[in-house]
Amino acid sequence: MSSIQHLVEANRPGLQQYEALYKKLHANPELSHQERETSALMVKHLRGLSDELDIRTGIGGFGLIAVLRNGEGPVVLARADMDALPVAEQTGLDYASTKYATRGEKETPVMHACGHDVHTVCLLIAAESLISAMGQWTGTVVFLFQPAEETGDGARGMVDDGLYTRHGCPVPDIVLGQHVAPIRAGVVASKSGAIMSSSDSLKVTVFGRGGHGSMPHHCVDPIVIASHIIVRLQTIVSRVVAPDDVAVITVGSIHAGEAENVICDRATFLLNIRTLSKPVRKTVLEHVNRVIQAECDAGFCEKPPLIEHHMSIPATVNAVEVEAKMRQTMADVFGRAFVTAPQSALASEDFSILADAVGKPYVFWLFGGTEASLYDSMAVSGELSKLPINHSAQFAPDMSVSLRTGGDAMVAAVLTFLTLRD
Fold first, then answer.
1. What would the DSSP string read from start to end of 191-208?
2. What are the backbone dihedrals phi and psi of residue 385, each rounded to the nearest 5 degrees, phi first?
3. In terms of residue numbers, what domain contains 226?
4. What are the binding positions for Mn(2+) in this chain (predicted)?
5. Cα separation, 367 vs 192, whole angstroms
6. Do the annotations mark residue 114 as ligand-binding?
């Protein structure tokens, strides 16, 4: 048994209290930038763990850190995200969310449909474990609880609010993060290089000239022009991006007009772009802008289109050297349950901003949340694509196994980069 494996097992806290905490969090989710009660609950629990924790709150909204100093050595930052999604839960769990919250001008149901409640509890488990093991390591650990991951601006908000300056967070030597995923519960998966994609979101407004539906020759129809743009955008993926590169362009929303016999004066659509490399990202963004401009010119728009770039998240790219170091630890701790992720995920994370802001390396990995027997049966029947995935109203991680796996994985990763005592 490796020393880290022994430390993980010897210092794992009883999980019953954490299961109860998880149920409370799951039943009481909060949207991005509204994580007041979740943040307060984190602080309350952390204060109950140890007086050694230096807790600082109100960072970039409801973000917080708890700093555990234990002598000279490396600084390791471990991150969890706290926010939920505007989704109406359909899991049927006895602790399912029935919460509603105001989003914009509307009341919307709220659910932890992405597993951030798992992440926060796993980080608390890791904090208790590492406090228990303080006699066996030296260095500093920062436990960071981040708001607003789903809106893509939570990590940036913490950094811009002075995370590493006025809030006094020690600059880390390594930043660590993880995400529960719809893979077999108990499995941990990592890979070097890009593990998650970049994400760019645009709001595009096409301006036409409105009028009566019976007189289109006196109008400039923005719906027709927007439709041409939306179809033409897919040729960027099929005809501009190389076949062995990856890009996804999705138009997820389009709004125009109010009546069938009126040609409206503008059409608006929302666009999302996913890529895995900086060169491909740059190429796609350039061509998206060119297509929009060209189609508006071809449609005789009297006013240039308005292209608003309202969210941008970089790809999550694990450096080979640090991922290899963590990989060895995970293989020792999890054995055959640690695997190499077969491909990059086209989901996105703002996690890397916490490291990039101070020019430090990071490692991000996935761990399984799908109940093992369900996963195995669906694999045998070839129906894995039917399993509830992140952001689904039916996404329900296997609570006990997910918490244990995520807690153990974070402890193992943190210990990998601290100095262990002989």
1. -SEEEE-EEEEEEEEEE-
2. -65, -15
3. 198-313
4. 114, 116, 150, 179
5. 16
6. yes
Angle between helix axes 116-132 and 36-49 (nearest 10 degrees) is 20
Last residue of a domain, one of 313, 330, 365: 313
User: Do 84 and 142 fall into the same domain?
Assistant: yes
Task: Label the pairing between strands 174-184 and 362-370.
Answer: parallel
179 belongs to an annotated ligand binding site: yes
Instruction: Name the helix (H) or strand (E) containing 23.
Output: helix 16-27
Strand partners, 211: 263
How many residues appear in the chain? 422
pLDDT of residue 1: 63
Q: Is the domain of 239 the same as that of 252? A: yes
Main-chain dihedrals φ then ψ at residue 378, nearest 5 degrees: -70, -30
Claim to verify: residue 181 and residue 204 sit in the same structural domain: no
pLDDT score of 330 more than 90: yes
Tokens 């989704």, residue located: 87
pLDDT in tens, 366-407: 999 999 999 999 999 999 999 999 999 999 999 999 999 999
SS3 413: helix
Residue 150, marked binder: yes
Q: Same domain, yes or no, for 72 and 33?
A: yes
Question: What CATH number is attached to the domain comprising 379?
Answer: 3.40.630.10
Shared-domain flag, residues 303 and 343: no
Q: What is the mean pLDDT of residues 336-359?
A: 96
In the predicted model, is pLDDT for residue 196 greater than 90? Answer: yes
Say which CATH number the domain at 217 has. Answer: 3.30.70.360
Examine the pLDDT at 250 and tell me if it is beyond 90.
Answer: yes
Longest dimension (CA), the chain: 85
Q: Report how far apart the first and last C-alpha atoms of the chain are (Å, whole number).
A: 15
**What tokens were used for 235?**
């040729």
Comparing C-alpha atoms, which of 110, 49, 102 is closest to residue 82?
Answer: 110
Instruction: Tell me which of 275, 295, 313 is where a domain ends.
Output: 313
Q: Sorting pLDDT into bands at 50, 70 and 90, what band is 122?
A: very high
Looking at the whole model, is its pTM more than 0.85? Answer: yes
Which residue blocks in 81-196 are alpha helix, DSSP H? 116-132, 154-160
Q: What percent of the chain has pLDDT over 90?
A: 98
Same domain? For 144 and 238 the reply is no
37 and 21 in contact (C-beta within 8 Å)?
Answer: no
Specify the number of domains making up the chain.
2
Q: Do 44 and 176 sit in the same domain of this protein?
A: yes
255 annotated ligand binder: no
Residues 83 and 227 placed together within one structural domain of the fold: no
